[in-house]
Design a protein that fits this description.
single chain; mainly alpha; extended
């Protein structure tokens, strides 16, 4: 499609919407947003979408049922990675020959 002046129309990159939430959550979100509530909420939704895509990809590759990722498993993995990072930071980084 084109505009009346002949320029190509671009699809909208954002949409105005209205949401309803409990007052205490709205107050919390406004404080966390630092003045840009729309960007704060959009980032939360984008993070949630990225997580959903990762979990979908894992399921496509057989990580289902007992192998499905869980929040508990994620926390255990994060803990192990943090321990490994701390161990590496405490060492000299040099290996014996």
């Amino acid at each position: 499609m084109t505009t009346p002046d002949g320029a190509a129309e671009r699809p909208p990159t954002s949409e105005r919407t209205s949401i309803t939430m409990p007052v205490d959550l709205a107050d919390f979100a406004r404080k966390r947003a630092g003045g840009n509530l729309s960007a704060y909420l959009a980032n939360l939704v984008a993070d949630d979408r990225r997580r959903a895509v990762v979990w979908e990809r894992l399921a496509e590759h057989g990580y289902q049922g007992g192998l499905a990722p869980t929040e508990e498993g994620r926390q255990r993995a994060r803990h192990r990675l943090d321990q490994h990072r701390a161990k590496r930071a405490g060492g000299s980084g040099q290996r014996a020959a």
